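Input sequence (218 aa), recorded before submission:
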Amino acid sequence: MKIHKEGYRLIPMVIGILFLINALVYFTGIHLLLLIILIPSMVLGALTIWFFRDPQIAKSANLGEVLSVADGEVVVIEPVIENEYFKDERIQVSVFMSVFNVHINYIPIDGEITYYKYHPGKFMAANLPKSSVLNERSTIVIKTTDGKEILIRQIAGLLARRIVTYSKPGDLVTVKDQLGFIKFGSRVDIFFPKGTEIPLRLHQLVKGGVTVMGRLTE
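Predicted structure, token format:
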């Protein structure tokens, strides 16, 4: 199992803290207390490593297909007015990521990054509709070679405390690239042009870089 680069610093820190705690308990000589501490420490250490897993999936898409940005559950499919960038009606599809999902965000379609903005905000539960505009978030727009634009919003959640976005305006990106990473539970919104075919249903589980979320029409 490959570890994502976002875990390179946090994993050693967590393991080091757990080791120190267990060492201090060991030197107290209270062996029952050590047993009580040791088992949860091993579980927490293993879960931390597992959270930062990078499955190294093979990603490809046919012309016009928009792949899922993240692993998770589809919690929204509806027409909305997108007020930050487009300022008109779009189709919003939202994917909620629990702490058990892979938290890598993927580029959903080939194109150029034309817009990026980070918004500080609150840390409400990411499955709430208002988290899309009130929580800490980053907005990214990708323009395809034929001029269509897809807006992606990375949203922090109740436990998430850091959003990482790798691509910036002017970058040329493909579905083989990673968009970023959100730590410890979060949500991603994607805004499609009106008329986009959305082959999804509510509460469907999707896989980042694999599941087709939309097919852009001519």
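Checked by second reader. The radius of gyration is 20 Å.
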